[in-house]
Amino acid sequence: MAVMKICAVPDPVLRQKAHKVTSFDSSLQKLIDDMIETMRAVSGVGLAAPQVGVSLRVAVIEIPEEEIIVLINPEVVKRWGERELEEACLSAPGYVGEVKRAVTVKVKAKDRQGKEFRIKGEGLLAQALEHEIDHLDGFVYIDRLESPDKLQKLTE
After folding, report:
1. Of 49, 47, 46, which is closest to residue 19 (Cα–Cα)?
2. Count of C-beta atoms within a 10 Å radius of residue 100
3. Residues belonging to the active site
4. How far is CA 4 from the centre of its chain?
5. Domain 12-153 adopts which CATH fold?
6. Nearest residue to 61 (alpha-carbon basis) of 128, 133, 107
7. Which residue in 18, 12, 5, 34 sits closest to 93, CA to CA?
8. Each residue of 17-74: pLDDT tens digit?
């Protein structure tokens, strides 16, 4: 396993719609393992393949005290409610912004073996699911800001 370099805005890979995964081979398994190690190394909650320079529809999420979720070719099936919350991103370091996200989301995806599953998320999981799927569609959370004054530079 290896920690990968995280791509930051304005890297063009972050603006591309990622390609669908068609082969669940050893290279995909290595990518998933490396993404998990990278996410943990930088204390992230989620990581999408485009963030490490790979234009594939793969994302990993690890909510504290929950099992890792591996999402291959995920799609949001349904959203319920709306809330405004602070969000940050490993690909836009040093900033935090207020965005609108669903209260609850239902997503269908495949696991690392290619088996389809559905997951319903609320709270942080709903936010992470929408955030990572946005990356797979070529969006970064800053694209979701209602206005530039909703983005704040973090001070250390």
Report:
1. 49
2. 14
3. 132
4. 15
5. Peptide Deformylase (3.90.45)
6. 128
7. 5
8. 999 999 999 999 999 999 999 999 999 999 999 999 999 999 999 998 899 999 999 9
